[in-house]
Fold:
Amino acid sequence: MNNNEIPFWQDPKNRSIVFQVLAFVIVIFTSWYLFSNTQANLQRQNIATGFEFFTQEAGFEIGESVVEYDSSSTYFGALKVGFLNTFKIAVVGNFFAILIGIFIGILGLSRNWMVRTLSKTYVETFRNIPLLLQLFFWYAIFTEILPGLRQAMMPIKGFFICNRGLFLTVMADHPIWSWVIAAFFLGIALTFFANHFGLKRQAKSGQEFPIIIWGIGLLFLFPVLIWLLGGAPTKLSVPELQGFNFSGGYNLSPEFFSLLLGLVLYTGAFNAEIVRAGIMSVRKGQWEAAESLGLSRFKSLRLVIFPQALRVIIPPFTSQLLNLTKNSSLAVAIAYPDFVNIANTTLNQTGQAVEVVGLIMAVYLTFSLLTSFFMNWFNRKMALVDR
Amino acid sequence: MKKLSILLLFTLFSGQALAGKTFKNIMKRQKVRCGVTQGLPGFSAPDSKGNWKGIDVDVCKAVAAAVFGDPKKVEYISLSSQQRFTAIQSGEVDILSRVTTHTLRRDSEMGLNFAPVTYYDGQAFMVRKKDKIKSALNLNGATICVQQGTTTELGLADYFRANKMKFKTVTFENNDEVVQAFVKGRCDAFTTDASGLASERTKFKNPNAYMILPEIISKEPLAPAVGHGDDQWFDVVKWTVFAMLAAEEYGLSSRNVDKFMSSKDPKISRLLGKTKGNGKALGLNEKWAYNVIKQVGNYSEIFERNVGKDTALKLERGPNALWTKGGLMYAPPLR
Structure:
């Protein structure tokens, strides 16, 4: 027998295999036990199981929805409304939270004491108050302070604010508007393309490409052209008091608006700190190098510092995107019909707790995984590439 | 975290697996666990000393009196309308006495068994007097506050659909939040059971500024419920309620029940356990009904002291009168 040979139990490789098998068996056994036990209990009490309720009539109304819905729709339809409402708040909320984060984060590095202090005050205030309290605060402004429907304030003509929310004047329905919006998005894509092309040309010939002028042209003139082609409709839809409510215009409900404000200001404060930290992580030499090339302070930030800072910023930003999405489930407290809200109602009307709670977890997991997936891709794209 | 919550959810349901029947558990624990509201005066709400009071509370007390001969052996667990069904399904409470409407789906799919109705109610609307709304049919286009996951939420949608009217809902899980939203002017109307409206109005600073519209738009028979799977326990709860109705019908109350112990009327002898048999059939002490009547009272006493004319709610008996007085309250023979 060779002295160097290790006994079976002392070989770390074997040991790790044994422990992993053991852990696996315990996990499988526990889940089997819990599953069969739950199944047996539900059956014993004759409680309905499964997802058949999806196709049954929901029978309840939902305060706001981005798709067609009424009480004769199915539970699936109701859950879809909740899902889309969560999606809406997540997209709009994250958009503004990132904007605020970048803006306030950069201000926090200003050479001006006043600007720097204001930025810091904002960050420390909103970061340190629990989000739920902030939501209650914003919602209370609507319910406690703002006047009733009939005494609605009108700070600008056609813009009303009262305890039923914000009422905005918008363009009246016309088929051309969807084309104008499409043109705007096409403009964004074309601007990216032009920028890419411009940079390439600059690398070759050193000639600077006037991207800002091109961008304005593509983003604004193009949609305006489409609008003119469509007959230039100018009809407005103005909110008008009629019966119990304003008719016409666009209504931002107090629930949606308070939730948006709360989430954006809270997450924005964290984002600002991330941006500030990211920019500070770029070595001073980079600023000096940019300056010595004759770049202005803003141009150094945009072309030299920020792209490098982005590598530090993106990973924690991903967490914040996820946080905002998950925190949006606090909507329940202020009656915004998000996914959790609708799912809770469904749970209560059908009594199928296991299925509905499982569904809630699955939906948030999907949201989170999709966001992570996208951000990881973005992160890889932005990461330092060895040339 | 996710794994943990699944685990918690499963253990919630598995808790009952080996423990056997509800009734046995109650005897072992020497306490009835009673699921009540988070505070609805007249039905279940703590008074200034922290004692739970109300019709629903008295039902639980009566059940404890029937089982243990002691109405104090109750543990009150306050539940939101959302938590209530999970609480009874998982066995967290033994009896759900929480202004819960008896419906087909709840009786079947949700795994509940409903005892006799303890309060016949119907859904109504409350509005501000200054809005000059005279009928529920004037509510087209209104914003309405309603509690999430209730039969009222469904009844509201049904009523507006049937009358081809439009409305917007604002829903909260917690009843107090619904009421606050209405009082603060977020909604034009607030809807729940008519008794609930009367009860909530007692809490308002200025109750006279509000009015309840005349329409009763749905049937809301409120009844205590137990979980599927323990028939004996179901019988005990059911006949406790019937005993209180029978007592009122025969003229027995907590004040005079002792005098009736010498009564020659065979119906009364059976009810009070002098003629033996009823107690044994239910698995209780023969004096179970006597204890209920002596320690808690008959139905009329419970009604009057919690929601009757001398209380803040000032409710009439209406359909809750005995069948002999034109109401719907009726107990089958206790024999």
Strands of chain A lie at 153-156, 159-162, 165-168, 170-171, 236-237, 240-242, 245-247, 250-252. Chain A is about 65% helix and 5% strand.
